[in-house]
Amino acid sequence: MKAVVVYESLWGNTAAVARAVAEGMGPEVRSLSTAEASGPAMADVDLIVAGATVLGFQLPSDRMRDSIASNPAGAPRPPDLSHPSMRSWLEALPPGHGAFAAFETGLRWSPGGSTSAIARGLEQAGYRAVMKGQRFVVKGKWGPLRDGELERARRWGAELAHAQV
Ligand SMILES: Cc1cc2nc3c(=O)[nH]c(=O)nc-3n(C[C@H](O)[C@H](O)[C@H](O)COP(=O)(O)O)c2cc1C
Fold this sequence. Notes:
- The protein is an alpha/beta fold.
- It has 5 helices and 6 strands, in the order βαββααβαββα.
- Strands 1, 2, 3, 4, 5 and 6 form a 6-stranded parallel β-sheet that branches.
- Helix 1 links the parallel strand 1 and strand 2.
- Helix 3 (86-92) runs parallel beside helix 4.
- The protein is globular and about 45 Å long.
- It binds flavin mononucleotide (FMN).
C-alpha cells in the first residue's frame, strides 16, 4: 500500500502533525507539503492523509492567505505561503480511487473546521473516507501544539496504517 500525508501549514503546526502521522504510519510514508505532493510522488497512491490549518472557522481560502501575508501583529514569524493552499491542491488533484483521512489543527473551542472541505474535495476526486476526521489542538492562535498532540498524531498514524483501504 502506498500512503502519503499531504499538508498545508502556515506556521508549522500542521506540518509537525503531518510528520508525526507519517512516522506513526511507518518508515516508508512521507509527509509532503501541497507543493511537493504532485507528479510521481502521487502516482498510484492508495491512501491520502490530508491536513490543514483552520483559519476563520474554515479551510483557508486563497483570499484569506493573501490577507494574512502581511504578517499580522503578534505572529511569531511570517506565514509560510511558499506552498499552495489545500483548496487549490484539491482542485488540481487528478481523479483517483484510493482512500483518505483528513485532519486539521486549530484552537480547542473553535466552531467550524477544515476537515469537511478536505473530505469534500477528496470525495469529488473519487477517494473514500477510511476514518473520521481528526482535530489536533494548539494552545494559542499561532501554536504551539498542546502537549501530547504529537503523540496522539503518531498513534492515529499507526491506526491508519492498519485501516482497511
Ligand atoms: C488569523 C488566524 C485565524 C485563525 N482562525 C482560527 C479558527 O477560526 N479556528 C481555529 O480553530 N483556529 C484558528 N486559528 C488558529 C490556527 O488554526 C492554528 O494556529 C493552526 O494550528 C495553525 O496551523 P499551521 O501552523 O499549520 O498554519 C487562527 C489563527 C490565525 C493566525
